[in-house]
Amino acid sequence: MSPPVLGVILAGGLARRMGGGDKALLPLGSGTLLDAVIARARPQVHALVLNANGDPARFARFGLEVVADPIAGFPGPLAGVLAGLEAAAQRDPPLPWVVSLAADTPFFPTDLVERLFAAVAREGAELACAASGGRTHPVFGLWPVRLASALKHALLEEGLRKIDLWTARYRLAVVDWPSEPFDPFFNVNTPAELAEAERLAALYPRS
After folding, report:
1. With contact defined as beta carbons under 8 Å apart, do 100 and 147 qualify?
2. Rounded CA gap, 81 and 100, in Å?
3. Domains contained in the chain, number
């Protein structure tokens, strides 16, 4: 059994390659990308929030607390991670861990949280992230809430933006998943990739 963890779905990006707007609200199957991500995330976490900027009312039907980037200017996914860490610290009781999830990745593993925690315990690591096909996926990461103030300092005082530069400061466990029959970390950045997601969702409805 994994320790209590807050899932934060990162949907704060600008979706430039999709022409702007909310990529998470693009249609997939009978719902949206966000519906697919929520369905995979909910069984794995104690609670779930959505990191997004602007008017939260557009996400009302999903029933999730919406937490905005605590730093202005769309500084990237690390700001969304910080939003999740701060939200976890403010819960009653506080949650000690956050797992970050990308809103445009509808097929991520159903054992993601379990395996990230197992790797942290096995390797004596402080953080963990996913990998597949020879690439790491640091947006799919496990973060201790105790690092919130250090991350906020790095973002505000150092101007740090790259997740890899942040995780390099700590003992990081990397957990690998197979990329066949398809990469579970396939993400949607373009209209062609959205079409491919539709194809995969039809081929592997219970994957």
Report:
1. no
2. 6
3. 1
Cβ distance 84 to 8 under 8 Å?
Answer: yes
User: Domain range holding 81?
Assistant: 5-203
Residue 45, φ and ψ in degrees, nearest 5:
-130, 160
* 20-29 contacts at long range (C-beta below 8 A, 24 or more positions apart): 22/52, 22/58, 23/103, 23/104, 23/188, 24/52, 24/103, 24/104, 25/58, 26/188, 26/194, 28/106, 28/194, 28/197, 28/198, 28/201, 29/198, 29/201, 29/202
> Which residues face 10 on adjacent strands?
51, 102
CATH of the domain at 19: 3.90.550.10
How far is 141 from 163, CA to CA, in rounded Å? 10
Q: Token digits for 191?
A: 């209209």
Tell the burial category of 60 from Cβ atoms under 10 Å away from its Cβ (0-12, 13-18, 19+): exposed
d(CA 120, CA 207): 25
Please state the pTM of the whole predicted model. 0.94
Q: Directed axis angle between helix 77-90 and helix 148-157, to 10°?
A: 140
* Closest among 184, 202, 203 to 37, alpha carbons compared: 184
pLDDT tens-digit map of 65-116:
999 999 887 778 999 999 999 999 999 999 999 999 999 999 999 999 999 9
Cα torsion 46, 50, 193, 175: sign: negative
